[in-house]
Specification:
Chain lengths: 388, 388
């Protein structure tokens, strides 16, 4: 059989910067990065897409951005900063996707240019997708503005939008060229969003790093109280663990079935969808962590003390550990647990779910016992009653 | 400045197979490939999207496909083979894009599954894009059915659709998992399509391989006469040169500005657009090769003998070397040459155009002299008059 074999590697590299007051003229973090990408022969364009929720709390931001980039040589800021709504809804908004593609066309944004998304995870997912498919990939910069996007989604390599209600049905793997985490932007977060973002740190600690889990226990009260230096340390450590997994586990673009970072997520995705996103992603993940941790205990994989530590930490962080949709409804299987079957189908017939062998050690299974799962839900319900 | 650095490499590998009668039950090329991708635990799905133009000439194809895959264990063919129109128009058809995405959703095609596109370059571009963005990337297999797609676009790593008339405005770099070139499928090609596909071979010979160019001169008459073994050798050598460039030049996903494989293409893209695709891509490329070769001569980069050899070969291959749209229109600059300015803007202010230093050796420039270009056009017009 005659054939030609093609084989090549593509290298991806980017830095995630941690800073404060990123658009203060004296803060050179972005300016220095751009300077490293300048080219004396051409002026590169910058197109900014800004989360309206962020702008509301930082009304001076547009002016700050304009002033900041005027001082950066070799780059031309497109004067029209595009402001879009924030939140999951933007990922369901197909006309908005095309509006952003049109802006890229209209402003002549090419592969030398940079699209800069400023906002929460949903806005960054949308902007990243627009950049990834326009001209087969325009460079994009992320400036995440929530705990969740600064420690998890914003530092990773995925983007996407929903299609006909299916989360992230359309998307790509396309690493950003840089990420800038500005702690100052977190100061105006709704307390619910502040706390919800912590659940991804609990998740990554549980599957990867027992000492980080202990650190979270020690610092739970400070985190809930809004202590910024503690939150900055959390974000740094969580982002580092998340990135180490993507870069180090050998499958950054998920060509295989393994998804250890999705611990607690199978039920979370379903809960978000069934509650029409009235649950924050981080809150749904917290519930998912509780259920899968209790399930790991009932399976005999972790001991009661470990389970108690996990649930206690979530409760201390004022994160939810239970939702009524987890119960059987009218004698029928819980709609969330029914989602497990959909998930199995989605994965092509073989389930891959992360559970816990210990605090700090995730392990995958390919089957879940539905009775045991319903028992785990009952335990979470009990904990929930005790906690409230 | 505090930062975390992310760095990883993603490996891509695929084979391009050369065969005959690919869906004959005794031809095990596809079956053996799929067998290498089988998994005893799950049945993987196959979704086929077929170019209606191919089906017209091979009406037995649907039945052959169905019979063929029934014999392949571990895979389930989605019974509904999706037949779409062929040609550039499919890349302008946004509802068709969503129809294919819907089919992926409806049939539960996941990342274990394979989407198989069978058709000319336009159909493969569309199918590749649909696969690339659905579920952040479903594995796709290409079965190109034209000379052009078997020797050039189909063996590469790009996909895309047009947006508001802009060619390939939306797309990604997403290598296929396998390509199957079936010579039998070329036997029913329109002679115009048969010949047009040869121009990409002339192009790659000119920039990469002088001996291949000599081979083309030797075999021009046989190619025009429809000699299949000669055409198969052409396709193999052209595909090999094309793939060697993608895999070997260090920038398979075109993060830089260099586009040596685009020799002759700046004017070709504009000619296609201005003629509303009544010119085939390969015909437009032939004209583009002629113009940029003559320009290379006028620049003093190649001698008259080389220029004469190039134009003579194109004429012998019955490929066009001139189009009236290259002339000034009503005293104004040619709309094709005006496209050079658009192209410069598209590239962010710095033009990158491949020219010839010799037969077999391309070299890039960042400026083109418009007067000299108009002179090159006049020379092509003269050659054209002489030839016809």
């Amino acid at each position: 059989m005659e054939y030609i074999e093609q084989s090549f590697e593509v290298k991806f590299a980017y830095k995630v910067f941690f800073t404060n007051h990123i658009f203060d003229p004296s803060n050179l973090t972005i300016a220095a990065f751009l300077d490293s990408r300048a080219d004396k022969d051409i002026t590169k364009k910058l197109l900014i897409i800004l989360d309206g929720g962020v702008l509301k709390h930082h009304p001076q931001l547009e002016q700050q951005i304009t002033t900041y980039f005027q001082a950066v040589k070799g780059f031309q800021l497109i004067p029209e900063i595009i402001v879009i709504a924030g939140g999951e809804a933007v990922k369901n908004d197909e006309p908005l996707f095309y509006k952003l593609v049109d802006a890229i066309d209209h402003h002549g944004i090419d592969r030398h240019s940079f699209v800069i998304g400023i906002g929460g995870g949903s806005v960054l997912d949308l902007v990243g997708y627009v950049a990834a498919v326009s001209h087969r990939g325009i460079k994009h910069i992320r400036i995440p503005t929530t705990v969740l996007s600064q420690n998890d989604s914003g530092v990773g390599v995925k983007n996407g939008i929903n299609y006909k209600g299916k989360k992230n049905f359309l998307g790509t793997f396309a690493p950003p060229v840089a990420v800038f985490n500005d702690a100052e932007l977190l100061t105006t977060l709704d307390p619910r969003d502040w706390r919800a973002g912590i659940s991804e740190a609990v998740k990554v600690a549980l599957i990867k790093d027992a000492s980080f889990f202990s650190w979270l226990e020690t610092n739970a009260a400070a985190l809930v109280a809004g202590n910024m230096p503690v939150m900055q340390e959390l974000i740094y450590r969580c982002a580092a663990l998340h990135m180490a997994h993507i870069g180090g586990a050998g499958d950054p673009f998920e060509s295989g079935s393994s998804r250890p970072l999705d611990f607690g997520h199978w039920s979370a995705h379903k809960l978000e969808q069934l509650t029409h996103f009235s649950l924050r992603h981080g809150e749904a993940v917290s519930i998912g962590i509780a259920v899968d941790s209790v399930y790991s205990y009932l399976l005999g994989w972790i001991d009661e003390a470990a389970m108690t530590r996990i649930v206690t930490l979530l409760v201390q962080l004022q994160l939810p550990i239970y939702h009524p949709l987890l119960e059987m409804q009218d004698g029928k299987i819980s709609p969330v647990i029914a989602g497990l079957e959909e998930f199995r189908e989605h994965l092509g017939g073989r389930l891959t779910i992360s559970l816990l062998r210990a605090i700090g050690k995730g392990e995958e299974v390919h089957e879940m016992d539905l009775d045991l799962l319903q028992q785990a839900v009952a335990t979470c319900a009990q904990w929930n009653t005790t906690a409230s």
